[in-house]
C-alpha cells in the first residue's frame, strides 16, 4: 500500500488487521464530528453519558437520553460500542450511599442498590454494548495502600469489585468485562493492578480484560514502561485495551496558562511519541482488542479543564479545525501487512 492510498483510507481501515480504533464521544458533539467518526473510527465510548452521576437520578429514576443517542449512532454506523463505566468512586451522588435520614447505608442495602443499578443499565444495553468497564480506578496511588478507600470499599468491603463483575456477567453473559485504571506505567501500581486481576481470575470471577487508560504526555512515560506493562499483562491471557488515550502538551506540574497554540516543535515531539507508542501496540496486537482515544479533535478535550481549569490543551490526532495533525501521519506510516 502506498502513501497516496493511505491518505484516502480511514485510520480504522489502516488498522483493520490489528485492532479497532475508537473515540470517546458525547451526544451533543456527534454531529460536529460525524464525518471524522465515520471515516476514522469503528468503535465509540460514551465519554460521560454512562457515568452514574448522569444516569442515576434516584430509586427507579434513570436518565438514558444521551446514551440512547450514542447507541443509535453506533448502531446506524456499524460501530462497536464500549460501556463506560459501571462502578467508580467518582461522579456518583453521595445519596447513593445514604438512607432517607442521611446516614450511611448497610452493606446489604448498598449491595442491593448496586445490583439494581448494574442490572438496569447493563440490561438496557446488553444487545448494543460488547464490553464494559465494570470497575474503574479501584487501586490506590499510594505505594503502601492496596485498594482506594472509597465508599464502595468502606460499606461493602473489598469484595465490592468481584460482586460488580458477577452482577454484570449475570446480566450480559456474552459481554467482555474489563477492569479499567491509569498509571500502569508506574511499577508499584502496575504490580498492584496485576495482583488484583490475578486474584480475580484465580477465583473464577468473570473478568475478561484490562483497560489501560493511556493519559500520557510528550515526555512521560518512557515507552519502555508501556512495553513492560503489555508484556506483564499478556501473561494473564486476558484482552487488553487502551481505553482513554490522549497526549497532553504539558508536563505534570506545569501550570502555565499563556500558551495559545502548540509550537511546531511540540507537534513534532507529540507525533514522534504517538508513533513510538503505536509501533509497540502493533507489536502486541495479538493481545490488544481495541485502542480508544479520549476524544476526537482538539477543539474539545477534558484536558482543557484538568489539571489546570480553563487551560487549552491539544492532545488528540485532529486539530481544533478537525484537520489531521502530524500525529495521525506518524501512526499510519508503516507497512500494514502482518
Short key terms for the protein model shown above:
2 domains; globular; 338 residues; 8-stranded parallel barrel; 11 strands; TIM Barrel; 17% strand; alpha/beta; 38% helix; two-stranded antiparallel ribbon
Tally of DSSP β-strands: 11
SS element count, helices: 12
The top level CATH class name of the largest domain:
Alpha Beta
Q: Do you know the CATH topology of the largest domain?
A: TIM Barrel
| Mean pLDDT score | 95
CATH H-level superfamily title of the largest domain: Glycosidases
Oligomer: single chain
Structural class: alpha/beta
Share of helix, binned: 25-40%
Q: State the major sheet.
A: 8 strands, parallel, barrel
In terms of DSSP E residues, the strand content is: 15-25%
Q: Give the C-alpha Rg.
A: 20 Å
Distance between the ends: 13 Å
Stretches where pLDDT falls below 50 for ≥5 residues?
Answer: none
| Overall domain count | 2
Please state the second-level CATH architecture of the largest domain: Alpha-Beta Barrel
Backbone shape: globular
Give the strand order of the largest sheet, numbering strands 1, 2, ... along the chain: 1-2-5-6-7-8-10-11
How do the helices and strands follow one another from N- to C-terminus?
Answer: HHEHEHEEHEHEHHEHEEHEHEH
Q: Could you characterize the architecture of this molecule?
A:
An eight-stranded parallel beta barrel has the order 1-2-5-6-7-8-10-11, surrounded by six helices. The chain has a two-stranded antiparallel ribbon with strand order 3-4. The protein starts with a helix and ends in a 6-residue tail after the last helix. Helix content is 38%, strand content 17%. Helix 6 packs parallel to helix 8 and helix 11 packs parallel to helix 12 (326-332). By secondary structure, the protein is α/β, with parallel strands linked by helices. The longest helix has 20 residues, at 264-283. It folds into two domains: 1-18 and 214-338, Alpha-Beta Barrel (TIM Barrel), CATH 3.20.20.80; 42-212, TIM Barrel.
Amino acid at each position: 500500500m502506498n502513501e497516496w492510498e493511505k491518505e484516502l483510507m480511514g485510520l480504522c481501515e489502516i488498522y483493520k488487521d490489528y485492532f479497532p480504533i475508537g473515540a470517546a464521544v458525547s451526544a451533543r458533539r456527534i454531529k460536529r464530528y460525524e464525518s471524522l467518526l465515520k471515516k476514522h473510527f469503528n468503535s465509540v465510548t460514551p465519554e460521560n453519558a454512562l457515568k452514574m452521576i448522569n444516569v442515576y437520578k434516584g430509586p427507579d429514576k434513570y436518565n438514558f437520553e444521551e446514551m440512547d443517542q450514542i447507541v443509535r449512532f453506533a448502531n446506524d454506523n456499524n460501530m462497536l460500542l464500549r460501556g463506560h463505566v459501571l462502578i467508580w468512586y467518582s461522579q456518583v451522588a453521595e445519596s447513593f450511599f445514604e438512607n432517607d435520614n442521611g446516614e450511611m447505608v448497610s452493606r446489604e442495602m448498598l449491595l442491593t442498590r448496586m445490583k439494581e443499578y448494574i442490572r438496569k443499565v447493563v440490561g438496557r444495553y446488553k444487545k448494543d454494548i460488547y464490553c464494559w468497564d465494570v470497575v474503574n480506578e479501584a487501586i490506590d496511588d499510594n505505594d503502601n495502600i492496596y485498594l482506594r478507600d472509597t465508599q464502595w470499599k468502606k460499606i461493602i468491603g473489598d469484595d465490592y469489585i468481584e460482586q460488580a463483575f458477577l452482577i454484570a456477567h449475570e446480566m450480559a453473559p456474552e459481554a467482555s468485562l474489563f477492569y479499567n485504571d491509569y498509571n500502569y506505567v508506574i511499577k508499584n501500581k502496575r504490580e498492584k493492578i496485576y495482583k488484583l486481576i490475578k486474584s480475580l481470575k484465580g477465583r473464577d470471577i468473570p473478568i475478561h480484560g484490562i483497560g489501560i487508560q493511556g493519559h500520557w504526555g510528550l515526555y512521560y512515560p518512557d515507552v519502555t514502561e508501556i512495553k513492560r506493562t503489555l508484556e506483564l499483562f499478556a501473561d494473564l491471557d486476558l484482552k487488553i485495551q487502551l481505553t482513554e488515550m490522549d497526549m497532553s502538551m504539558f508536563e505534570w506540574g506545569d501550570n502555565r496558562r499563556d500558551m495559545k497554540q502548540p509550537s511546531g516543535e511540540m507537534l513534532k515531539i507529540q507525533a514522534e511519541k504517538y508513533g513510538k507508542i503505536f509501533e509497540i501496540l502493533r507489536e502486541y496486537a495479538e493481545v490488544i482488542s481495541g485502542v480508544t482515544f479520549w476524544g476526537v479533535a482538539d477543539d474539545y478535550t477534558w484536558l482543557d479543564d484538568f489539571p489546570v481549569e480553563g487551560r487549552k490543551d491539544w492532545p488528540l490526532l485532529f486539530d481544533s479545525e478537525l484537520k489531521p495533525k502530524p500525529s495521525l501521519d506518524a501512526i499510519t506510516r508503516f507497512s500494514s501487512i502482518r
